[in-house]
Amino acid sequence: MILRLAIASLFARALTVGMTILAIALSVALFLGVEKVRTGAKASFADTISGTDLIVGARSGAVQLLLYSVFRIGNATNNITWESYQDIAARPEVKWSVPISLGDSHRQFRVMGTTTGFFDHYRYRQGRALALRDGAVMTDLFDTVIGADVAATLGYRLGDPIVVAHGLASFAEHKDQPFRVAGILEKTGTPVDRTVIVSLEAIEAIHVDWRSGAKIPGQTTSAEVLRGMDLQPKAVTAVLLGVESPLRTFALQRAINDYPQEPLLAILPGVALQELWGIVGIAETALLAVSAMVVVTALIGMMATIFSSLNERRREMAIFRAMGARPAVILALLVLEAVLMAACGAGVGLGLLYAGLIVAQPMVDSAFGLWLPIEAPTLRELWVMGAVVCAGAIVSTLPAIRAYRLSLADGMMVRT
Amino acid sequence: MAAPVLALEGLEFQWPGRAGFALQVPGFQLLPGETVLLLGESGSGKSTLLPLICGTLLATRGTVRVAGTDLADLSGGQRDRFRAEQIGVIFQQFNLLPFGTVADNILLPLRFAPDRRRRAGDGRARALMLCRALGLPEAVLSARAGTLSVGQQQRVAVARALIGEPPLLVADEPTSALDAGTQAAFLDLLFEQARACGSALLMVSHDPRLAARFDRVLQMEDIAHSKRGGA
Ligand SMILES: Nc1ncnc2c1ncn2[C@@H]1O[C@H](COP(=O)(O)OP(=O)(O)O)[C@@H](O)[C@H]1O
Ligand SMILES: [Mg+2]
Q1: Predicted structure pTM score
Q2: How many C-beta atoms lie closer than 10 Å to residue A377's C-beta?
């Protein structure tokens, strides 16, 4: 009956109570939404590359190497010579190796030279392999395989010609080489979606007529001549490695880092991803903190509402006291009321979250390659909601204690 | 002679603060089933006396015995339960929780008084009977108390005070919010039902016109000394 009376009392103040609940609901939805995006981003981030045991590049920072080799952000300061690559690939611990060569672009997308081994060994999202939506991997010197975003953004279909530019955002395009689209990859939600993949030899071919970033005047080598040339690269940007046995990973890493002929760096992708997330994570933590503050603000708003309702409700409390309610009942009643409001707020907030997800999920997926799963609330989300209800109870103890004091002082009559 | 249902002895109380109103009651008794009207000017301490009897205010000196129990012997929680068990309270106005139904309001004291709940038996049926006896339509039980007229609300307050037949009713100017015509009808019903329940009634008021119906009529000055500004 007390619970029913508490609910009836809330209904009697439907407008203010509704506003309070709405404020809590919005804040909870915001918090859960941020949390959802955060975990989604973190998961898809950590899922960017898997199955690769080591990434090797010229000596620089682990995060930098990860950024340019996997995320295609920034540039390598140095390359790895072909000889060093051969040396490392030939080591007994190495099961497979995929060299990649970066530095060219096609429109806003990066071009990556690699071997077809890339399609065999690159894994994302817990071991998923790349799949072709259309066409096949490169067989000809001028074949390219493009990521899903490249195809979608530029409207490319199989067989379309592509012009590859040397250097990023460079206007000097390699107009002479008639590349064409040989394959289009399925969407992965990784940087592969935004990559134009060609063979290592193709990268060499592009640069035959170029010296230190500038076209050699008057020199144009035709496609036919290029096909006949020895296009073995002199250097690659990075190498993805798989080891024979995971136990040998660290030994191999040390050996590469101590490679005497050239300063090299080998990184464990998982560790580097975590390190990188640690940097990105600051923004994410700040965002989470801000949305937590919004929740706190909403709860303090609720506290203010309860405080301001106390005076007009002194009579109500006096009635309870006269009927034999202990002052503790008054206290409990107000806390119960706050818990009900907070619980409603949390529940409605969760509803808003799902509604928002249903609307935003396809948009977020296509815009950011971020898949936000619509699933039953996770334990963590339930914890958050529980915490909001608890915080509501805690926050309400302040006005409740005041009501307790008032009702003790008032006894059962309110001075009018 | 039966033991008094209410006995005050050497009671002293003062509202906090240096200029707090002080009240002294050397001795006062109320017998079971007796109806007493306590008349006093506004500000003479009538509304201070009732919470002292109900145990929501504690006397600084002296004893308050209700149905033989000294309130000072009880802990705070016990006093609250004791009040719920033994005393029906009717205020001047604003007796009811406006958001609750009439039934909720009538049954509220039973919620805090298990013995009284047992005495009442089927609470809802008893509430319905009381409502009928007090001239309230049956449908009123499930109406929200806030939607009732003041006169109806006061009658609901009587039903609430009487449910489970507590030995003592205290009423603080229950008629002052009613117009003259309704006052008489209200008092008729109150007396009839108090008698039916065997409850003693202590009513305080400033209105001497009510006097005729009571077994005894006392002036505040007869039983109490009050002092403004304390000492
Ligand atoms: N809650 C309170 N705190 C302090 N003084 C009070 C309080 N309630 C009443 N008083 C004082 O007690 C005196 C008597 O008031 P009250 O008992 O309400 O008289 P009555 O009901 O006869 O009009 C008043 O002078 C008032 O100032
Ligand atoms: Mg008064």
Answers
A1: 0.75
A2: 14
